[in-house]
TrEMBL record:
PROSITE patterns: PROKAR_LIPOPROTEIN (PS51257). This is Lipoprotein. Residues 208-247 have a biased composition (Low complexity). Residues 35-75, 197-247 are annotated as: Disordered. It comes from the Bacteria.
Length: 247
């Protein structure tokens, strides 16, 4: 599907389903409240866990995850885009869920936010879409584009807001390909003073709730049974901790 068409479909789905999801979870769009300008970081993760699930395995030499280099941390947009690229760069051969990728992006968190996310453990499994990817031992790649609708507060010396659109693809190690992460991501960044490095303080996402379409491959028939088995045992999560996305 053409990238523009995929984006239009994703945005439409996000408008219908994602906003309802955020409302149901009681989450507030950070743009609804003006920033105090004190640069103080959030100290809690977005979702409180009930029963922790294990994190993923250490990455091996064949892992496929993004590693942006030379990110200008004096540029709020560059930091937001780098964080989003890494936080949506999953490798299901090693990751047990989306939160593992979020932790790889922790270098761009504020100190308090990084500590909160490192202590967080997802309480629910990663869901059907994740299970589909995992059945193919897939990794994801994403394109990150500005999606600013002009409604975000203006930047101050110590606070900035960025809206980004994520358009992802999934690549199975068995040759399968399918739709990857699709979401609009709202990032709040803070810094202690003008000229200081920007850090991610809060994230809210609106997911495009579409199933992972696939390009048929010879491995699809044999992997269907394993995907079905995986779906009853694999890990899943709600999509609203900065950390928890596919359902």
């Amino acid at each position: 599907m053409d990238t523009r068409l995929r984006r239009a479909v994703a945005v439409a789905l996000a408008t219908v389903t994602g906003v309802a999801m955020l409302s149901a979870c009681g989450l507030k769009d950070y743009r609804d409240a003006a920033d105090t300008g004190d640069g103080k970081a959030s100290s809690l993760p977005s979702v409180s866990p009930k029963a922790p699930l294990p994190s993923g395995r250490p990455l091996g030499p064949d892992a496929h995850v993004p590693t942006p280099k030379k990110v200008d941390d004096k540029d709020a947009t560059a930091v937001a885009e780098a964080w989003t690229e890494v936080a949506y760069g999953y490798d299901t051969k090693y990751d047990s869920g989306p939160h593992d990728a979020v932790l790889r992006a922790a270098r761009w968190f504020t100190a308090d936010k990084a500590e909160a996310e490192r202590s967080y453990r997802p309480a629910a499994a990663a869901g059907e879409i994740w299970n589909t990817w995992a059945g193919h031992k897939a990794w994801t790649t994403v394109e990150v584009e500005s999606d600013d609708d002009g409604d975000a507060p203006a930047d101050t010396r110590t606070a900035a807001y960025r809206a980004l659109f994520v358009d992802g693809e999934a690549h199975g190690r068995d040759g399968w390909t399918g739709t990857g992460p699709q979401a609009t991501v709202y990032v709040k960044l803070v810094r202690s003073a003008k000229g200081g490095p920007w850090r991610v303080d809060d994230v809210r996402t609106v997911e495009a709730a579409a199933p992972p379409s696939a390009t048929p491959s010879a491995a699809d028939t044999s992997s269907a049974a394993s995907s079905s088995t995986a779906s009853s045992t694999a890990t899943s999560s709600a999509a609203t901790s900065p950390s928890e996305r596919p359902e």
